[in-house]
C-alpha cells in the first residue's frame, strides 16, 4: 500500500497507526521527503516521533529541507514500526512525505517434517579437480 501525507503550517503532524487488535506485522517505509509547490526558502525540519524500548517518546530529525539548496531527500525506504508520527518541527512547508506500508499476516508456524529435505534428496556434487598446469 502506498502512503502519502503533507505537513504544513496548519497541519504540522501526521500519525500513522494500525488497529491494536490486528495481529499482523506492519512495516512503514519512508522513501522520499520533498518540498511541495508554494514552499518558502526556509529550513523545514521533519522529524519522526516514536517510542523507545522504555516506552518514552523520542523525536529524531530525518530531513532538513530548504528550497534553494535541498528541496528533496531520498530516504531509501527508511523502515519504521507503527505507530509513528511525522512532525514539521521547523518551517512552514508544505512538505510531502511518500512511502509504503506492508502488511505481513502471521500464519501458523507449525513445521511439517515432510517439507524438510533429507540428505538422500540432496543432489551430490562432483569432486573438484585441481587445475592443470
UniProtKB/TrEMBL annotation:
Gene3D superfamilies: Nucleoplasmin core domain. GO terms for molecular function: chromatin binding; histone binding; RNA binding. Residues 111-125 have a biased composition (Acidic residues). GO terms for cellular component: cytoplasm; nucleolus; nucleoplasm. Its main location: nucleus. The keyword Cell inner membrane does not apply. Residues 3-102 form the Nucleoplasmin core domain. It is found in: Nucleus, Nucleolus. GO terms for biological process: chromatin remodeling. It comes from the Eukaryota. The keyword Phosphoprotein applies. Residues 111-133 are annotated as: Disordered. Keywords: Acetylation, Chaperone, Methylation, Nucleus, Phosphoprotein. Belongs to the nucleoplasmin family. Interacts with NPM (via N-terminus). Forms a pentamer with NPM at a ratio 4:1 (NPM3/NPM). Two pentamers form a decamer. Plays a role in the regulation of diverse cellular processes such as ribosome biogenesis, chromatin remodeling or protein chaperoning. Modulates the histone chaperone function and the RNA-binding activity of nucleolar phosphoprotein B23/NPM. Efficiently mediates chromatin remodeling when included in a pentamer containing NPM3 and NPM. This is Nucleoplasmin-3.
Amino acid at each position: 500500500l502506498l502512503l502519502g501525507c503533507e505537513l504544513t503550517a496548519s497541519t504540522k503532524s501526521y500519525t500513522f497507526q494500525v488497529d491494536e487488535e490486528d495481529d499482523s506485522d506492519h512495516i512503514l517505509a519512508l522513501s522520499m521527503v520533498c518540498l511541495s509547490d508554494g514552499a518558502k526558502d526556509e529550513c523545514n525540519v521533519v522529524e519522526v516521533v516514536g517510542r523507545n524500548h522504555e516506552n518514552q517518546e523520542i523525536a529524531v530529525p530525518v530531513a532538513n529541507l530548504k528550497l534553494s539548496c535541498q528541496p528533496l531527500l531520498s530516504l531509501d525506504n527508511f523502515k519504521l514500526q507503527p505507530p509513528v508520527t511525522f512532525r514539521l518541527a521547523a518551517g512552514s512547508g508544505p512538505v510531502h512525505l511518500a512511502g509504503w506500508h506492508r502488511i505481513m499476516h502471521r500464519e501458523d508456524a507449525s513445521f511439517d517434517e515432510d517439507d524438510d529435505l533429507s540428505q538422500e534428496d540432496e543432489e551430490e556434487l562432483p569432486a573438484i579437480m585441481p587445475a592443470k598446469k
